[in-house]
Amino acid sequence: MLTPEEWIAVRLSLEVAFWATFWSLPFAVLVAWVLARLDFPGKGLLDGLIYLPLVLPKVVVGYLLLLTLGARGAIGQYLDAWFGIKLIFTTAGATVAAAVVSFPLTVNAIRLALEAVDRGLEVAARTLGASRLDVFFSVTLPLMLPGVLSGALLAIASALGEFGATITFVSNVEGQTRTIPLAIYSATHMPDGDAMALRLTVVSVVLALGALLLAGLVDRRIRVMIGRA
Amino acid sequence: MIEIDIRLARPGGFSLAAAFSAPAAGVTALFGRSGAGKTTIIQAVAGVVRPDAGRIVVDGEVFFDQARGIDLPIEARRVGYVFQDARLFPHLSVDSNLRYGERRARATERPIRFEAVVDLLGIGHLLKRRPHTLSGGERQRVAIGRALLAQPRLLLMDEPLAALDEARKAEILPYLERLRDEVRLPILYVSHSIDEVVRLAALMVALADGRQIAAGPVAEVMANPELLPVIGRFDVGALLECTVARHDEAFALSDLTFPGGVLRVPQVGRPVGAAVRARVRARDVAIALSRPEEVSVSNLLSARIEAVRMQEGPYADIELSVGPSRLASMVTRESVARLRLAPGQAVWAMVKSVAVDSRRPESEPS
């Protein structure tokens, strides 16, 4: 059905999308909580910065990543010198690009779920002796779980489709950074790549649709589980 | 012992000033119309709302003292808060809801047992259920149980019956009475229903527009003429502390003695000698100049007019004394003129209806 080369691209895409979401999720929950629950000077600016990758051209995001996290970038040079982490041309770099681009979507989904949680329940939990942190893990997080999970699936779906930032930041290296969109892009430049492009396109559609359906299903299941149906 | 002395002002014009103390056990009602500041007071006790000034002390522990900069966080105050809307956790079973606070209480300070609370509130058959499958009355009972099991130092109840229909109220009230009688805890009970206050509370604090009008024993506060606009003209009345004297099984009636007289009422379910509280609304008391013969009213009391207060509109308030006890009567101004009613006059009070609350004497706070 798929050639070994195409399988590599599919597996790489799934890996990148999964890990990008996995690592960004806790930060997304934290940022969503800060934006939804705290008031501080400069909140508007933080809000804007978080959503910036959503509206900026993805090529610009990729180039900014290159400037900051690249081999000679402001942060990148120390990542390499101190920790031996190389992002350029690597799967790790592709994961970072996917995470940055999908971050605003994840934060937004989680923030909406968080704002829907009844603050009265949190007050009730505190009168029953729970500290703020305890309340977050025992009441707030379980109640916003549908939002967190659908946010995560949304992030996976959008990470699967990431192109501009990835190709600008970490280039198009087979087996390292060549995810499905990049492989399709390469295929369209090859003389006999049409069949490959078409097969990968079908895979893309199936994966994206699968993620969306799964998101809906999980959301309903959890709502029933936590008595919100 | 709860000592409250707080003041606060909010942008938009609402301000509150209240100062009272409540005993170490028994129900103290915070009574007033909506917007009077009742809920704000218990929110301040819980730590949900921070007053601008004053102090709140419970059992010698300072919850809040503006002058000394003390403001305990909510979770350190250990108050059992029963909200009007129950606020059960939707993602937890009834059992887990009940145990939420219990798990967080210190193991050495758990005098209130799970089984006892489940039994007291009759919620044993609900433990496996989810909150959204419960009726409003069941939810409120579970919420009360959850608050009790957190091993609180006091209970705060914010109109726990207000969101329920009459049938559900009637279902829960007996549980509240059992709670009051069996759990040795101070209870601050917010209500705008004088019936609930009379039935449950020993002490009451009356509030209007953020101002404390009166505080003290329920009977005393109810006799306060300043309370008239708060209770509403048609619910004003006197409260008589009575003793069951005898039962008339043939006619299913009971005689209740109070200082100064006897009331004949439909049979009460309390033994002879028991203390009960009778509420006589002013509109149920008519006045006659001579002893009326051949009338259906069975409660005729020899009384003396203490005061006549003309009101705007058709009515006048008459204050009566029956021996050392006080009664109130509401008659038309036209009747006052026709009968030439005046202070000092000896009259007959015809009591058309008496509401009896069978409270147990041992529940009275010391």
TrEMBL record, chain A:
The keyword Kinase does not apply. It is a multi-pass membrane protein. It is found in: Cell inner membrane; Cell membrane. Keywords: Cell inner membrane, Cell membrane, Membrane, Molybdenum, Transmembrane, Transmembrane helix, Transport. Residues 10-213 form the ABC transmembrane type-1 domain. SUPFAM superfamilies: MetI-like (SSF161098). CDD domains: TM_PBP2. The chain crosses the membrane at residues 16-36, 48-67, 87-114, 135-160, 196-218. Part of the binding-protein-dependent transport system for molybdenum; probably responsible for the translocation of the substrate across the membrane. Belongs to the binding-protein-dependent transport system permease family. CysTW subfamily. PANTHER family: MOLYBDENUM TRANSPORT SYSTEM PERMEASE PROTEIN MODB (PTHR30183). This is Molybdenum transport system permease. It comes from Ancylobacter radicis. The gene is modB.
UniProtKB/TrEMBL annotation, chain B:
Belongs to the ABC transporter superfamily. It holds the Pfam family ABC_tran. The keyword DNA-binding does not apply. This is Molybdenum ABC transporter ATP-binding protein. Residues 1-234 form the ABC transporter domain. GO terms for molecular function: ATP binding. Signal peptide: none annotated. Keywords: ATP-binding, Cell inner membrane, Cell membrane, Membrane, Molybdenum, Nucleotide-binding, Translocase, Transport. The keyword Transport applies. Residues 294-360 form the Mop domain. The gene is modC. It comes from Ancylobacter radicis.
